[in-house]
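#data-curation
PF: Archiving a pair of folding outputs for the training set. Convention for this channel: one message per protein, sequence first, structure tokens after, nothing in between. First:
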Amino acid sequence: MDWRRAKSVLIVSFLVLNIVLGYQLWIEWRERLNTTVNWTSLPPETIQFMRENNIQVDDNAKIPTETPNMREISYTFKQRSDHGIGGRKEIVSPPETRIVFDEELVKVLGGVIPELDKYALDQQGSREGSYFVFNRIEEGWPMFDIHLRLYYSDQRIRAYTQDLIEIKPLAGAKEQQVLPAAKALAKVIERNLPSGSVIKEIRLGYHGEIFDELDEQVSTPSWRVLLENGEEVYYVNAISAEVTVEKNDAFVNP
């Protein structure tokens, strides 16, 4: 028997086997992603980066496909709450918390909470067992920095805190098509996310740093990226693509 030839055949066979197994693992990983969302919209190098750094996505996460035209908005505070215990307003004869999720909410609490119909539930921003978070809605999109919190216990809403604002004209503000979510997410993944991160949500809305010394604030179209650990929030400016990282408000004001 020609052992040299047999050895060469075995080596080639093992190499082919490794290539086949590696390809099958790659296909399975891609299929696992695609069963929940269209992650193929991400650049190949981003997907490779995710593999190498064990960055995963939640089963319910989705990459939005809309790229609407949006503009910066300006507003002033009519009321700004610290969302702490001292800022809570107690609700007399509190209703059951189930009304939070149906159309009866405004009917029951609309006479108690001002402008309630201008807020929408932010499920990902809420804290189970403590409070529901609602964001102010402007032009159909959530303002991630303007909150209404409904605090509950024993199946009843007990108190609330609320930011109230007034929208102001912003000179020179022009509508522009926003950055696609896939591009925004790719930038966050490759430049900001630590190894082992699990992406929970990416959502379009408005975000802007709030300056206490200024009366008029500016909020910019932004993609919000949330992780499963919930400790940090990533915002991608949907016009300039600039990324900012902030501590999750739920950890700052439990």
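PF: Second:
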Amino acid sequence: MLPETPSMLPPPALHPAPSLTPQPPSSDEDFFSSASVASTSSSSEEEKHCLTPSPSPSSIAPQIPISWPVDGTLTLAWVTDLMLAFDWASRNLPPADLPTVLPVEAFDRLVLTASKILHKEPNCVRIDDGSGLGPESRVVVVGDVHGQLHDVLFLLRDAGFPGEDRFFVFNGDYVDRGAWGFETFLLLLAWKVLMPRRVYLLRGNHESKYCTSVYGFEKEVLTKYGDRGKHVYRKCLGCFEGLPLASVIAGRVYTAHGGVFRASVVTPSKRAKGKKTRRINLIPDPSVLSLGSFEELSKARRSVLDPPWEGSNLIPGDVLWSDPSMTNGLSPNKERGIGLLWGPDMTEEFLRKNNLKLIIRSHEGPDAREKRSGLGGMEEGYTVDHVVESGKLITLFSAPDYPQFQATEDRYRNKGAYIVLEPPHFDSPVFCSFDAVTPRPKANPFYDFEDVIDSDEELDLASMVTS
């Protein structure tokens, strides 16, 4: 593990001041601790030096409570103040005092502004020349972060903040399990509002009502915002509905939380006798499984809190819950009870049909991979699962030393990772692994981690439909 450091961020100036007197930052470098560094020790030829870290934009301590700008326009200083304030609060305040840092009024404005942006985006966002992607650009792809705020703060510092030539694609699962899912999600929403065409937030399977009720995010929000907690939680759920499902980068790289998806094969149901004017209903044929098209993906109804595991709108569930397999073919994902399992032949078909070179997905941490024979572990924060004629399938996981709370004493102590895609083709991944920031502030879990299984397998997903 890395050496312990007292804090990643300097404390903010408080108005009014709490019982703990904050200290001013000593230098720009104090904006983030240098304890964690990206690791490029793998023997893989693809693993190179990562991006040059961003310097601190300001050493001025932020003012709290955070208030929404009078003109409604966010600035880099506002977003970095939010980062500073969240880090300080996580180390010095009890969770129930978070409204003194980010009042509900500021939360409402941030979530409303972000939701309007997200809901206007298509199911699959395209990041290409029309989006400003150019010969000097880099694209940073991030996997699951699961409320591990301090590791996200480090990742942003290590990869470099979003900018004119630095794009970010976050692959979902911002909340649950970790103690700071709310702060993590709000921070990424702030970056999205600040740079809507440089930061893309995709949806993960945990951005749902069902998962957040099982793995802690709902209780976290209710704990932090008290009698306003239900209001705040509902606003977060509404924002989850707007998160896009996938992205295509430079026409070469497909990213989604879970992976590929099925075609919408339907068959007409029988028309009742004597009902000539009754409309013929189309129902999906569960016996026919084939890969879907981007046109079908674009038409899927994503604004559902819990994607169905049966019925006519199965594509969102596939995109969010599916897993790769080392066995050829396409089949129902019986372990999870929702989504698909797909083999190397399906990866080849998906890449070839869509003229792609890479699939980057997330969804599986070290706990899930421990149970999956034939697939690599998550010790370095990523695995290359399929290597086929047309390209590769990669699983990317960005939450190191995961999960924060774990029922077993033998922790995985995995690294997290992010991927950098570079010009001219943006299809040769540069893997950047990093260790967890330590010490992690002490916090209590918001779910019963001793009784709830670590991975998402074997959950009663059928209850999502009626939850």
